[in-house]
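Lab notebook, bench 4. Continuing the backlog of folding jobs that were queued last week. Each job is logged with the same field layout so the records can be merged later without manual cleanup. Today's entry covers Williams-Beuren syndrome chromosomal region 27 protein, a 222-residue chain. Filled in by technician R.K.

JOB TYPE: sequence-to-structure
TARGET: Williams-Beuren syndrome chromosomal region 27 protein
LENGTH: 222
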Amino acid sequence: MSADDPSNTKHIFDTFLDPKMGMEKGVHTYGAWAKQYNKMLTDHAYSGPRAAADSIDKRFQNVADKSQIRIMDMACGTGLVAEDLRSRGYENIDGVDPAAGMLEVAREKGLYRNTWCAYVGTGKQLPIEDSTYDALSIVGSMGANMMPCAGIHEMIRLVKPGGYIVNVFREEILSIDEEYIDRLIPLMKQLEAEGKWKQVEFSKLDQYLVDKVGLVYTHQVL
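JOB STATUS: finished
OUTPUT FIELD FOLLOWS
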């Protein structure tokens, strides 16, 4: 069976989400499969990128010129969110991802003005000034071997007051991944109580990734 055979896709994703692998090995695995990544997600009917782009576009639907709205595509992978945003007129998009192979594919598409190969939420800030972006998206990047809850603090730091953060992830991480169980939602609520941001929209995706349910949280930075 070849690696790019659709029948092999489930095995590949089971490998990506194996909690025993750890973050560093997980990043190398994503990088190694970067050129097959888009096809694998297509086989899985992945709706996360479109949901994030929809939420961002809803925030700026009355803006005549969307090309100057500055957006951070965090954990951008091969650029699926940026592709959707660009089709709607958004051009000022930056990306960050820890997997060099994924970023290489994204860069070849010419989707981003700036990119950084870096981890987020592991104790080191990105080399980007506070309050830089009008919006930030993060899709499918909270889960086993992925960004820890602490990454939310960096998201808020990067977005201007009044700007938006859209986080799309599998609902099941809240009950199966130790990093997020009784931690992610309480942190989101704590930051709202502290006046760091406020939730402006929440929705569910019944077919986020095949039969997996997705959650879409949209917050406004205060």
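OBSERVATION: The first helix runs from residue 9 to 16.
SIGNED: R.K.
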